[in-house]
Specification:
Helix content is about 30%, strand content about 20%. The chain has helices spanning about 15-25, 30-40, 65-70, 80, 100-105, 130-135, 170-180, 285-335, 380, 435-440, 445-460, 465-480, and strands at about 45-50, 55-60, 110-115, 120-125, 140-145, 155-160, 185-190, 195, 205-210, 215-220, 235-240, 240-245, 260-265, 360, 395-400, 405-410, 420-425, 425-430. A hairpin with a 2-residue loop joins strand 11 (about 235-240) and strand 12 (about 240-245).
Length: about 475
């Protein structure tokens, strides 16, 4: 004779709280979860209020009827998986695990849910002490009350008896990261002030890439060098508009310039871990996403290199211009040091006559072949010039000595190339030289370095057979170029 027997299963409620704590490594993430529940319920406005004693999250979503309330407190409910779109705005629902309300008990002693939907209005009090006292039973006190027409549909969740401190600034940061603030018909306020997504200024690189599992979309922003920061480093990777984590996708190997990379990426098909802080790395979806992002980040690096080159070119142009101005003043004081004889001074005090200018920038086009031989003296034209083509980053200016003068060209000639050299009346300065790169990082030193190299070549042009005298003249020119007025 067979005897049927049953083993009673008792739920250890303390374990539910522990599981919730592990799922949400930061208690502050609980607020994010409550706001995202409101988003899933088609709310257009969520009001978050944080005080030392309590936290309130109030929304104007669809609210819950009795069946909805019962579903709300089911662990691991499949409701949102079975209905992934919200009924009104057809939003991709964010919530997934249904254990967040138990995790709240790790941060407070009482959790109250008040909801209204049509003619149904009720409140459920989730008291941690009372709930734990009744063992494995799941009964929660529900109080029904007449609906409030002024309130309308929606849900209000209140956490009372806080056991942890919540800084409003930290709450705002978490909401900006983990809530779809850019979604249509959705806004969130914190203590009466609207929470707005971060606005980044810089060079924007939008992209749309396809994979066999779904699209990868987003925008990478290259911040100006002055705005580079290690705070919030990396690109936000979002799944269903919620930031899962920040990634650099190998850009951390770029050095300091990686601190200029920001932006956000949307890849809703990538599976995430249960704590929502990472991805399932061995999944085929993540592998496809990773390969796509490698292509994107390679393009970002190319753009960054071009932007960095432009910034360096502007800095080099400023430093060269200032160096030439100072050298011009020094040559006026020391006319005998000019390789072309005394400098004629115009009526307006300019060099080379009233209509002349001390120096000017040569017009340069990217990829232009500079016919340097036209600028050479007759004796040097017979020789094949060392430099026949300049890079698009070249900076060229001319310093006039009456009808004659010299040209200075700052360009890239390799780290092992000479620091400075000349061909006829053209002085070349190597921007790849380690000394130049070191001095270029400091604006004052940058100008001084260029002036040192220019005065060196000018002094040698005056008397190439007497280097000792040339160095003494260079010293005099530098002193007069940088002496205080």
């Amino acid at each position: 004779m067979e005897v049927a027997s049953y083993l009673p299963v008792t739920v250890d409620k303390s374990h539910l709280v522990t599981i919730g704590e592990r799922l949400y490594s930061e208690s502050i993430e609980l607020i994010r979860e409550l706001v995202n529940n409101a988003y899933d319920a088609d709310a257009t406005l969520v009001k978050v209020t944080v005080t030392p004693e309590s936290i309130t999250v109030e929304d104007n979503g669809t609210g819950m009827d009795l069946e909805g309330l019962q579903q709300y407190f089911v662990i691991g409910s499949q409701e949102k998986l079975m209905r992934p779109k919200s009924p009104v705005f057809k939003r991709d629902r964010i919530g997934q695990f249904g254990i967040g309300k138990f995790a709240t008990l790790s941060a407070c002693s009482r959790f109250i849910v008040a909801t209204q939907k049509g003619e149904f209005a009720a409140r459920v009090v989730f008291d941690k002490e009372e709930w734990s006292r009744v063992g494995g039973e799941w009964r929660l006190p529900l109080e029904a009350f007449p609906p409030d027409p002024e309130r309308g549909n929606g849900t209000t969740v209140t956490l009372q008896g806080l056991t942890k401190r919540f800084d409003p600034q930290d709450v705002e940061r978490k909401l900006i990261e983990g809530v779809p603030l850019k979604a249509a018909n959705f806004s969130v306020s914190l203590n009466g002030l609207r929470v707005r997504p971060k606005s980044l200024s810089g060079h924007r690189i939008p992209f749309l890439e396809g994979t066999e599992y779904g699209p990868v979309t987003g925008e990478i922003v290259i911040l100006p060098a002055s705005a580079a920061s290690t705070e919030d480093l990396g690109i936000e990777v979002k799944v269903k508009q919620v930031t899962v984590r920040r990634e650099l996708f190998g850009a951390e190997l770029w050095g300091k310039v990686a601190s200029r990379i920001r932006g956000e990426i949307h890849a809703d098909f990538v599976p995430i871990t249960s704590d929502r802080t990472g991805f399932v790395l061995d999944s085929a979806e993540y592998q496809a996403f990773s390969q796509t992002m490698q292509r994107v980040i390679n393009e970002v690096q190319s753009v960054l290199n071009r932007l960095t080159g432009k910034g360096e070119k502007r800095a080099a142009s400023r430093a060269l211009g200032e160096a030439m101005e100072r050298i011009t003043r020094a040559l006026i004081k020391n006319p005998d040091f000019s390789p072309f004889g005394a400098l004629p001074v115009g009526q307006a005090g300019g060099i080379g006559g009233a209509a002349a200018t001390p120096f000017h920038k040569e017009g340069m086009q990217e990829g232009e072949i500079v016919r340097l031989e036209k600028r050479q003296t007759k004796s040097s034209r017979r020789k094949s010039p060392k430099v026949k083509r300049l890079t698009p980053d070249a900076v060229v200016r001319r310093l006039k000595f009456g009808q004659a003068g010299i040209s200075c060209c700052l360009d890239h000639f390799g780290e092992t190339g000479p620091e400075c050299f000349n061909e006829g009346t053209i002085v070349y300065i190597n921007r790849d030289h380690p000394l130049y790169k070191r001095e270029a990082k400091k604006p004052g030193a940058h100008t001084m370095h260029i002036a040192r190299l220019l005065t060196q070549e000018i002094a040698l042009m005056k008397d190439p057979r007497n280097p000792r005298q040339a160095f003494e003249r260079q010293s005099q020119l530098l002193r007069d170029a940088f002496i205080d007025d």
